[in-house]
Amino acid sequence: MRWVWDANRGSPVHENATISLGPDGNLVLAEANGTVVWQTNTANKGVVGLEILPEGNIVLYDSAGRYVWQSFDHPTDTLLVGQSLRATGGPTRLVSRLSEAEPLNGPYSFVMEQRHWALYYQTKNTQKPMMYHKSSEFGVGKGALDFFGFYTAPESEGSSAFEVGFGYNMSKSESSGTHILTRPKYNTTYSMLRIDTDGNLRIYTYDENVDWGAWEVTYVTLDRSEDTNAHGSECKLPKRCGSLGVCEDFQCVACPTAKGLLGWSKGCAPPPLPPCKGATNVDYYKVDGVEHFTSEYNEGSGPVSLTQCKDKCSKDCKCLGLFYKAESSKCLVVPELGSLPRVANSSYTGYIKISK
């Protein structure tokens, strides 16, 4: 069994809590003392019953069979087959869990945007979400995504192979279609798409051909494939190498310190900084041949000199480091460091802020 939905994420109930469908049609989760933790807000809206449908959708329906409320309209971190994101009147994003054991909102999100989908990372230190992966554009250059559904279907009539992916519609145009992500060689009726606790987007498929039952990863967005046109590199996961680490060939290969590159371990972290007093009490150490996990989608500002770039970071209390491209004089200051993907161009350099 795999969890696929949280009703009350962030508000776990205690012993003897109850869930009840009241005579007024409101579905309520309450503590033993009667404190309401979560509800559907469907009181006096004609609800006559509750059902869990075969595709995993929980619905409250009226006497005509119409859905008054459905869990498919309130996804957390997972899309089931037939579930969708919608630009208007519905959800546009999935948000990861904090961890497998903690059903709290995590820092990662999968977002349907105007012409693509994207993965974002946000923490208390980041003013706005940081994009670390973006899909290719949908449609034919017109309109915007207004429907984005997770589907699975036989590859062709009578075929034993199934395709799994997205079906989409574009507003203000006639454009619609499908975007296939994977083609397992067995029935994929039981599949789900999830933004995982590590920030990766995966599809899990249940293989009924295995005697004891197995959920198999049939698609992963940021993986170890050499074909980064089809997939992104696992090194672009914000915390692939923890709080700080150089990532090369999908491995955490070094811990950048003021004394040079040391062996990486989970304890590798940015150096502690003094109380923020502007540019007077900080300095930097250099890391050659790296970029930030957001660099592919954010080249920073410029052209500016390296001195100006350092000054910008020094005056920003939230800046933990900067990434400078000498050939274009572009300056990217960042509030989070994390995984630093290795690049072939040695003129790409990172600078980690330290106490002077």
TrEMBL record:
SMART domains: B_lectin. Keywords: Glycoprotein, Signal. Gene3D superfamilies: Bulb-type lectin domain (2.90.10.10). Residues 1-73 form the Bulb-type lectin domain. InterPro entries: Bulb-type_lectin_dom (IPR001480), Bulb-type_lectin_dom_sf (IPR036426). PANTHER family: BULB-TYPE LECTIN DOMAIN-CONTAINING PROTEIN, CURCULIN-LIKE (MANNOSE-BINDING) LECTIN FAMILY PROTEIN-RELATED. This is Bulb-type lectin domain-containing protein. It comes from Erythranthe guttata (Yellow monkey flower).
